[in-house]
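Entry 14. Structure prediction run on the chain below.
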Amino acid sequence: MKVLVVGATGLLGNEVSVKLVGRGHKVRALVRSTSNPDRLGRLQSLGVEPVTGDLKDSKSLENACRGQDVLISTASCTFSRQEGDSIETVDRLGLHSLIDAARRTNIHHFVFTSFSGTIDVPSPLRDAKRSVEKHLEDSGLSYTILRPSYFMEVWLSPALGFDFAKDSATIYGAGAAGISWISYRDVAEFAVQSIEKPSARNRVLEIGGPEGLSPLEVVRIFERLSGRKYQVTHVSDETLRQQFAGAPDPLQKSFAALMLSYAAGDKVPMTETLREFPLKLTSVEEYARSVMSTPPNP
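Output returned:
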């Protein structure tokens, strides 16, 4: 199967590309002329075909889509520092243009990575994601929309205050509400299975990890494995609401909304989904062992 991956130089898109190549699919990646050369080189070493384009350039999208069977998009501007990138230009208008290009070039199936359906705090990013979902559903294309919960590699990392190297953790809200933390590698597996399973067509799939754990329960797992006490700092709900109200731009407002939703919790029941998509989901404990290089218990 010929698969175009949009967002292939990012964390999730790279993993999707690796899995696709491993399954024998022929992979093309939409990349920009300014893409990180190391990441681009890793893709090419896998046998991925790069094609230059940009979500803000509709003509380049049609060229990238032409001749492909399936499209998987993991693209977002949330961690981009490229000039001209924004939630409006990339996450909404760019993805709308990509869907239109896929329709014009007869793409057979479109997989879109959105985020959890329980995230209902209004924000530019949430509104853009839901707008793209609706545009895809109305496009006439066969589609799968994936709505993963919070990525453990992102939200349980030093970048967002969970600093296991320093035995400290920033918790948004009280930290008592359960979240179905999911590994980006498992999201990539769902994306690949979605193009291989006819039952995944025209579906919206809420996906999470194997258990709903509160942030404080996660801290206790890290403490148990490390044998050290963590210094926990809480960002109160009131502070989060103030950050949301005072956010100076759409991206910061969207991150503040994600933190408010984190504080409220996001448990995703997975029993029925795993009957249809059989895979062993990564647990928070497995993630903790991997990042701390802790040997497993005998």
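The first strand starts at residue 2 and ends at 6.
Filed with the rest of this week's runs.
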